[in-house]
Amino acid sequence: MCGIVGYIGTRQAFPVLIKGLKRLEYRGYDSTGVALLSTNAMLNVYKEEGKVANLEANVANRDLGGTIGIAHTRWATHGIPSSTNAHPHVSQSGKLALVHNGIIENYSLIKERLTKLGFTFKSETDTEVLVQFIEYVKETHGVDTVTAVRLALNQVIGAYAIVLVDKEAPEQVIVARKSSPLVIGLGEGNREFFIASDATPLVEYTQNVVYLNDGEIAVLKRGEEMQICNLKNEAVDLDVQSIEMNIGLLEKGGYPHFMLKEIYEQAQAMKDCMRGRLLEKEKRVVLSAVCNHSERLLNAKRIIIVSCGTSWHAGLIGKQLIETFVKVPVEVEYASEFRYRNPVINKEDVVIAISQSGETADTLAAISLAKEKGAFIFGIVNAVGSSIARITDAGTYIHVGPEIGVASTKAFTGQLTVLIMLALCLGKERGTISEVEYEEIVTELAAIPDKIERSLACNERVADLAKSFTYARNFLYLGRGYNFPVALEGALKLKEISYIHAEGYPAAEMKHGPIALVDAEMPVVVIATHHELYEKMLSNIQEVKARKGRILAIVTEGDEGVKDLVDNVIETPPTLACLSPLLTVIPLQLLAYHVAVIKGLDVDQPRNLAKSVTVE
Ligand code: M6R
User: Fold this and answer.
1) How far is residue 355's CA from residue 382's CA, in Å, rounded to a whole number?
2) Is 362 near ligand 1, meaning CB less than 6 Å away?
3) Beta-strand (E) ranges in 121-200?
4) Which residue from 48, 104, 474, 525 has the fewest beta carbons nearer than 10 Å?
């Protein structure tokens, strides 16, 4: 949560910062700010409530000169969204300016201490406390700013990625991180630096990056090589990595919203995910991480999947896939619950962490806990070089490209694709899947991208249907087997972008409570594709119909059994049950999208949310 950008070099900083903030706006968008160090050592700070475009418009006539700057787009934790609480925060003397992503947990103790010493605070934020504290340490110890940052951070409890500028040291930017992401791009001759919360603001300037590790501080001086030390002041070697990213994926490319673009990208994204892994002619799936760690993975007595939100829904489907084809018991845990409930974890356990961003704080904490207890950690991550990708023992990137819309779409289908490939690899190695079934799934998996394209043909029809649903205050989504998690996912999509309350339920469970809600006003979305629980699903549909519920059914092409029972049907191409979520989720994503568009809501940046949840 929160996006950080910084620059030091020979270019004008402001345009670099604004462009970077726009790329990171998905991380939070309730207020924005920049601090620019001008050539005559003036520190100009501009902050506004609202989005980056608002800041840009409001500062157009101000002094925007300077080749050093820091900037921030906020997702409020301490204090309401306002220009006062927006970052950068400036120290009492006006010399230091700081942007911060994370939470300083002991900020109130530090604040109390500083208040007794006569410090005053303008904002309600933990960040202002930190910048004042750094200044206090600097003055009382009579040290330079870098040392002050290090000494102060040694007393801080919590998570931070910070970038700091000092008006009196106008040739340097100080950067530090612990448990919040931060990457530094090396520009011109490795002596110009771009700083950001993730690589998306950097890729158009450089491919060479350094990911700062926890407890590291980097000092970036214009025209000099970067220096990194740890909190004990020991020098750390530079580990320069090369990144590749298609800039086109960071733009809307003619679509009105990133979410729609990303829904439409799913066929290609799935091909990218399977490239070099699904060998269609040989009817084989190869995952290098599985080959390299086969002993550890195959000897697992139990698999625990930890994740949040959409990634947790993918995990539920993963459980069914792994238990069916690998015959190993799987538990699926909300990372936020797992980390705090003293779970039993054994050395023989394999923990699979699923995350689009690779930065979700709860998932990271769950991994650390499992690691401490000796479990083997396997990551299924999208963001290359992210924290989760770096702390896991092994893993498979989903490679679906950057996902910008806050509502996750192509990452979900990418995660499912990796989970299916993982189940196939492990099942084959363990001999728990028959050769015939293995080959049948591999062949069908290769055909899914084309079937996704076919599924997308329902877009206009869904858009039309969506018009008649905008009145609804509640929705029920029902599914069974592999499609129960899809019902959860459909409901989550609708909730987060259309602000309509929606619940996903296993269809048979409905009669144990939720059926009381069903009346003529209640839209019920059912996933009733042609698989083993189809007949059971027909009975569940009858139960809803008997209570006059308004039913939209997702069915298999050519289905005759459902259409007379329900109000509307959307068809998806036939496929195997275990692959059906890859297709049934498409109309549900589109439904949420169109309802939100018709309601005039901000689809890509829905209220109160952020793409990357880096606070617990
Ligand atoms: O980046 P992650 O996959 O770890 O994120 C987990 C959730 O925060 C995320 O899936 C969230 O639920 C999405 N907004 C859902 O669309």
Assistant:
1) 7
2) no
3) 158-166, 172-178, 183-186, 193-196
4) 474
Residue 61, C-beta contacts closer than 8 angstroms, at least 6 positions apart:
none
| C-alpha–C-alpha distance, residues 462 and 13, integer Å | 45
Spell out the residues 6+ positions from residue 7 whose beta carbon is closer than 8 angstroms to its own: 13, 16, 17, 20, 67, 68, 69, 193, 194, 195
101: left (phi over 0), alpha (psi -120 to 50) or beta: beta
Distance CA 203, CA 606 (A): 26
Residue 611 catalytic? yes
- What's the pLDDT at 611? 80
Is the minimum distance from the CB of 355 to ligand 1 under 6 angstroms?
yes
Residue 582 is predicted with a pLDDT of 98
Q: What is the number of the ligand 1 atom nearest to the C-alpha of 363? A: 4
Q: Is 57 exposed, middle or buried (0-12, 13-18, 19+ CB in 10 A)?
A: exposed
433-463 confidence digits (pLDDT tens)? 999 999 999 999 999 999 999 999 999 999 9
Task: Give the H/E segment covering residue 465.
Answer: helix 459-467
The pLDDT tens digits for 86-98 are: 999 999 999 999 9
Rounded Cα–Cα distance for residues 503 and 517 (Å): 11
pLDDT at 117: 95
Question: How many C-beta atoms lie closer than 10 Å to residue 175's C-beta?
Answer: 27
Q: Is 2 a catalytic residue?
A: yes
Residue 489, token pair as written in the block: 């996912």
| Closest approach atom of ligand 1 to CA 411 | 3
**Strand segments (E) across 511-567:** 523-528, 550-556
Element (H, E) at 424: helix 410-430
- From 357, 384, 419, 593, mutation site for ligand 1 pocket: most ligand atoms within 8 A of C-beta: 357
Q: Can you spell out the DSSP letters for 246-314?
A: -GGGGS-TT-SSHHHHHHHTHHHHHHHHHTTTEETTTTEE--HHHHHTHHHHHT-S-EEEEE-HHHHHH
All domains of the chain in start order, with CATH: 2-245 (3.60.20.10), 247-433 (3.40.50.10490), 456-602 (3.40.50.10490)
- pLDDT score, position 343: 92
Distance 309 CA to ligand 1 centre (A): 5
What integer pLDDT is reported at residue 510 of this predicted model? 86
| Ligand 1 neighbour 406 (Cβ under 6 A) | yes
Pick out the chain residues at pLDDT < 50. Answer: none
Residue ranges of the alpha helices (H) in 373-409? 387-391
Residue from 310, 316, 604, 605 whose mutation best tests the ligand 1 pocket (most atoms within 8 A of CB):
310
By CB atoms closer than 10 A (0-12, 13-18, 19+), residue 437 is middle
- Which tokens belong to 222? 């214009």
DSSP designation for 469 = T
Amino acid in position 149: V
CB-ligand 1 contact for 408 (6 Å cutoff): yes
